[in-house]
Amino acid sequence: MKDKIVSKASDLFLKLGFKSVTMDDIACEMCISKKTIYKYFCNKEILIEESTELVHKTVHEVINTIVAKDHNAIEENFEIRKMFKEMFQVADTSPLYQLKKHYPEIYRKVMDRELDECTMCFKQNIEKGIQQELYRNDLDVDVYVKFYYSLIFSIKGNTSSEKESTKLELQALEYHTRAMATAKGIAELEKQLLKTNI
């Protein structure tokens, strides 16, 4: 039952917002009593923490699946972006923005967790792109990882509209890729941008 509550709460939080969804809403959606929820979670904050953990786990499982498909480095980034767009398109307000605004403590924990996972993911992508001659081989990989991480999470944490956030993330991805790309990489980037606009 606990897992079902976390799963349903995660869906509702992402669709309607962390602030607006109440314990009553979750109970009503699941056709259970609020008392049942409180049996597992003494307050909403704990339920939000567990929900963000589930979302984090799901996102990184999907990222690993995309990476395992062995796309080239630039296509891989576009596939990951597409996955984010599909996962969060139901929300009007950016989930991370809401979290930062209404639950700053939980937001900090989420960001600490994301730092390690995303840093590793971005680093592997850049190293892969260098091997494939899509990115320049004179890059300071760690610096570019920090640049991209700062850019993406600044957009996610400071843009209230999910639609606007998605648009800015595409521009950030293009900016990041152009900064690193070889001539071969630019050609691949143009191909991916063309597919995105179709």
Fold and architecture overview:
The protein is mainly alpha-helical. The chain has a single domain (52-196), classed as Orthogonal Bundle (Tetracycline Repressor, domain 2). It is 80% helix and 0% strand. The protein contains 10 helices and no strands. The chain has helices spanning 2-16, 23-30, 34-40, 44-68, 73-88, 95-102, 104-131, 141-158, 162-180, 183-196. It is elongated, with a radius of gyration of 19 Å. The termini are far apart. 26% of the residues are buried. The mean pLDDT is 91. Residues 1-59 form the HTH tetR-type domain. Keywords: DNA-binding. It comes from Flavobacterium aquariorum.
Number of domains: 1
Order of helices and strands: HHHHHHHHHH
CATH class: Mainly Alpha
Any idea of the CATH topology? Tetracycline Repressor, domain 2
- Proportion of β residues? under 5%
Contiguous uncertain segments of 5+ residues? none
What gap, in angstroms, lies between the N and C termini? 43 Å
Per DSSP E runs of 2 or more residues, the count of β-strands stands at 0
Total helical elements: 10
Mean residue pLDDT: 91
Apparent shape: elongated
Describe the biggest sheet? none
CATH superfamily: Tetracycline Repressor, domain 2
The assigned CATH architecture is Orthogonal Bundle
Q: Share of helix among residues?
A: over 70%
The Cα radius of gyration reads 19 Å
Indicate the structural class: mainly alpha
